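Re: duplicated header lines in exported structure tokens

Our pipeline writes sequence and tokens for each protein into one text file. With two proteins the header for the second block appears twice in some exports. Here is an export where it did not happen, for reference. First protein block:
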Amino acid sequence: MIEKLSRVLAARPVKHFSTTNRRESAVLIPLYKKEEKYHILFIQRTGNVTVHKHQISFPGGRYETSDKTLKDTALREAEEEVGIRQEDVNIIGELDDFATAGSHYVISPFVGVIPYPYNFKIDTFEAQEIIDVEIDELMDMTCREEGTTVIDGETIPAYFYHHGDRVIWGATARVLKQFLDILCALDNPLTP
């Protein structure tokens, strides 16, 4: 799956925001194989962070001038928040940019494969806990609800993924939806 996903991500054009009126940020979508199934790592943010308090998200954050690229931002933030060393991440592709509704960020998501088991080290100021979710669970349509939200005066689709008593929503859910759509297309016989 990882090889095919890597090829598909490399072949697709990435849509970047050309506007400069949003703050740049990046996230890592950490994938790993556990008990023969692929999983995604999410974090539950604490109430200490400036924005997105208590939300479930991918590890990531704001671009800093010390970062050479947004990929560096995603890797740095993942290391700071959950202890994933940058040299342990194999970046296999990038998704489209996504705007946040309330915090005025634009997010650049990077898909990376990490080894498992892994000795995660949570920064308890930023991350309350790590949430491990099997990808097959997220593909189950019964865990997803749809709605709408408004960003920059435009009504766009909104998604809500239920995992136990937790809900993944907002920009994280829109990034996740694009990622899962790409995964679904891998199994479609009409897709080359």
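Second protein block, exported in the same file:
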Amino acid sequence: MRSSPLHLLLLCALGALTRVPPALGAEGPVASWAIEDLVDAVLADATGNGHDLKVVQAAGQEFMGRSFLRTGPGKCALGPALGDDWPALSLLAVVFHEQPEKAYAGIACRDAYGGAEGDVFGLLTDPDGNWIARVTTVGGQQTAATPAQAGWHHLALTYDGSLLRLYVDGREAAQAAITGKLVSAPETPLAIGGYSNLNGWYSGGVAAVRLHDRALTGEEVAAAWETWQAEHPAAAEFSFAQGNDVHVTDTRSVEILNDGVDRINADPRVAFSLWLGDLTQNSDADAMALARMGLSRLTRPCYALRGNHDVAGGHFEREFGPLNRTFEFGCWKFILLDSNPEHLPFSEDRLLWVREVLEATDPAQPLVLCTHHPLYPNTAAYLAPGAAEVIALFSGHNLKAALSGHYHANQEEVVDGVLYTTTACLATTRGNHDGTTQRGYRLFHCTEDGITTEFVTVRDIP
């Protein structure tokens, strides 16, 4: 029987098992691999210990100025079976997570069983949308889990002989008790991007992996993430997409949303997307679930606001989470503010929340404010009550843009240095208020000099 290329490479990886491991307890890593060390299908071990990884079909890719090894079906890296009988362990990985389909998959592991079982250790994903850290010792098997998030992240598994810990971005996210030395499974090689048995492919990217034969402290894990970010700063310039007023009613009405999602996924410039309300027509549970499933196809982070058509039943909150939120990307801060109910001014509680956000924000930091109802002064019939009061809160801060939906039309104007926009709907169940026929979304381009925008037509519906 002829051996497949993957099978031959697995045999090559197993051949590396004859190497003599370094002494346990060394301060530095036993092995360290980074995308910068990828040469001729080999990820060289930066420690000099000779634990190189053979790359199978995978290739380097770049996003936002950072490089990673693109993994997926048939694309991985394989190496030696490090870790047998170790009393302690730390496994660190920098990943670019793109919200792949929920499934068991290996990010960096020695795991030949897959699914809920494993035979040594690993950082993996599961069907519930979690990142998981798993170890198997002579005392049994234990798992620590936390919800996965899209974007660049640092994952770390540490095991000190009594406790398994999972860290995300330098902070402990979960822990579980277990004792004993790691089991010995010399037939199971280390794999990056899949299981050791060449299944369970991770559809994402891995930029760096480090393996220690001791349990790093929380301070050391945090320092490792800070150091990597300092050495790999994200690009100062980035783009994001913004859609609104999808007005989903049934499976057919989701088709145009799927078309928009496909366009956004195919645009390598888009770092994330915003969805500014009226995801459904009538705020019923089925329509909200359809909208959420449509947006779940996005391969990069997305953030949603509810519109006046999304208020009833609490279905938006169940599918999409908090009504008000902030997040940062690059040096910019994005503030998503719920503007419902539409005919009443913003409540004092909501204005207090904005004040507290601004008090905790450097006045020089570029800000983008997002609402469903327009804050745009020239949209009088659709203007959010109390819009001027909200904008006044940003006096003394670096507000760059105020983005809104609700009014189905493409408008953009700079007023007092702030870019105000509304955007045509992305719907087949509704038309545009200005009579135009283009349905689509906006792209925004952020630079050190400011923010600019353009409209992307998804469909023209006369």
